[in-house]
Design brief:
about 250 residues, Arc Repressor Mutant, subunit A, Beta-Lactamase, 2 domains, 6-stranded antiparallel sheet, 9 helices, 8 strands, globular, HTH_MetabolicPath_Reg, transcription regulation, DNA-binding transcription factor activity, DNA-binding
């Protein structure tokens, strides 16, 4: 790619869209400029363009995204067969183990949920396809980071803001690299209330028919119901069975 091929205006527009989130559904021009590190004039033009195209509304001060923005994410989910293939398996798995089951892919330093079957709400946030979580402290993120070359995983951790969500969250890069090595050796990851107190989860990699890790599967359970030490004993084999069944279908 040549420098002249990069459309900087388009890139700035995408940064503005990404500034909105669950914690920031309404933003002023100043808010967007601060979040994106763009100057106010550029942030204003991007926001007004989004509003003109129907992707945002504004009341004179605050801007909010409109449902039309879902077309951008829906394009990926519609064009990618993986969510459609995985969803029935997650539904069956969730019914079998009586816990929530999910699938996600790695996107930089985060995981993105692509399918989910929920038995009950075990987290304070409402997870659904399109939801994002930090990879370093999520079981599916750990599995996918462990599948990368060690140096690539280290670089992603260096690019991540490693904050402690709970007293259990591992934030030391050296400790995390050791944990990734352990996950790589054993073939699965268990999280003990690192993302949210009261939640344990276990994840396994999802490989395609060539053996390449393309996603991850997990089961989450309330810690009061199933301790971290029990997660592998209860749920590892059902997860592996689903991954094995899916492998020949993922070409």
């Amino acid at each position: 790619m040549q420098e002249t091929d990069f459309v900087s205006g388009f890139a700035r527009g995408l940064k503005v869209i990404e500034a909105f989130g669950e914690a920031t559904p309404k933003l002023t021009i100043a808010d967007v400029a601060r979040a994106t590190e763009l100057d106010r004039a550029t942030a204003r033009r991007c926001l007004l363009t989004l509003a003109e195209l129907g992707y945002a509304d504004h009341d004179g001060k605050f801007f909010v995204l409109t449902p039309k923005i879902l077309r951008l994410g829906h394009a990926y989910l519609s064009a990618t067969p993986l969510p459609h293939i995985v969803q029935p398996f997650l539904d069956k798995l969730s019914e079998e183990v009586h816990q929530s089951a999910s699938a996600s892919v790695l996107d930089g330093t985060e995981i993105v949920y692509i399918a989910r079957a929920s038995q009950k709400r075990v987290m304070s946030i409402n997870l659904m396809p399109g939801s994002r979580l930090p990879a370093y402290c999520a079981s599916m993120g750990r599995v996918m980071l462990a599948a990368l070359p060690e140096e690539e995983a280290r670089v992603l951790l260096e690019q991540t803001v490693l904050k402690a969500f709970t007293p259990n969250t591992k934030t030391d890069p050296a400790e995390l690299m050791q944990e990734l090595a352990r996950v790589r050796d054993q073939g699965f990851a268990v999280i003990d209330q690192e993302l949210e107190l009261g939640l344990c989860s276990i994840a396994v990699p999802l490989t395609n028919d060539r053996g390449r890790v393309i996603a991850a599967l997990n089961i989450g359970a309330p810690a009061a119901q199933v301790s971290a030490d029990e997660m592998a004993e209860r749920y590892l084999q059902p997860l592996k069975a689903v991954a094995k069944s899916l492998k020949p279908m993922l070409r």
